[in-house]
Amino acid sequence: MDWISKQAESLESIQNLPSLKYVHPLMKSKWLNSNRYYGASPKLIEFYNKQKDFHAQIVKAFKEEGVPMLAGTDAGISGIVWGFSLHDELELLVDAGLTNEEALASATSLPAEWLEIGDKIGTIETGKFADLILLDKNPLTDINNTRTISGMFVDGKWLDKTKIDTILEKVANWNDANKEKFQWKNRKEL
């Protein structure tokens, strides 16, 4: 709702996303040229803002009642860039009242428990899959430190920051080279 509310008034929130270069050109074009939220009426913008506030209140109420919450913003909504948006969600969960530790659990151990695969993933333990992100700074002191990725183990194989950046650069370059090929047309133009 935070992203929907922002883009209802302006597309700058999407245009200024550092991670936008990793979005497929067709999706990027759609988000910028045929955005279903942009240009909303003042009444609808007010509704979006109320929804955003309501969601923050729900997080607080769930926390007070001990209801487990799982992170999961990667839904393909415009402005929600897969993978990168998790950091935004963790920040929003902390802003809504979760501790840094609770927010981290919402993206690690709690989803594993909910999916009934906690014996395989979700925590760092002997015998579990070796998928792990190593950070340069402690996210327990500042949730934004989840963005300070030094490297990661994927299926037990180490990818350092240089390798990750190389992979991301290839994606960005491919997207840039193919942007003319994948232009979203408004329905009126078809």
Measured by DSSP, the beta-strand proportion falls in 5-15%
Low-confidence stretches: none
Q: How many β-strand stretches?
A: 3
Q: What is the approximate shape?
A: flat
Biggest beta sheet attributes: 3 strands, antiparallel
Mean pLDDT, all residues: 92
Terminus-to-terminus distance? 30 Å
Based on CA atoms alone, the radius of gyration comes out at 19 Å
Structural class: mainly alpha
Q: Please give the share of residues in helix.
A: 40-55%
- Largest beta sheet: what is the strand line-up? 1-2-3
The SSE string, one letter per element, is: HHHHHHHEEEH
> Helical segment tally?
8
Q: What number of domains? A: 1
How would you characterize this protein structure?
With 190 residues, the chain is mostly helical. It has one domain. A three-stranded antiparallel beta sheet has the order 1-2-3. The mean pLDDT is 92. The protein has helices spanning 2-9, 12-15, 25-33, 42-65, 85-95, 100-106, 109-114, 161-177, and strands spanning 132-135, 149-154, 157-160. The longest helix is centred in the first third of the chain and has 24 residues, at 42-65. It contains eight helices and three strands, in the order αααααααβββα.
Describe the secondary structure blueprint for this structure:
Layout: H1 2-9, H2 12-15, H3 25-33, H4 42-65, H5 85-95, H6 100-106, H7 109-114, E1 132-135, E2 149-154, E3 157-160, H8 161-177
Antiparallel strand pairs: 1-2, 2-3
Helix pairs in contact: 1-4, 5-6
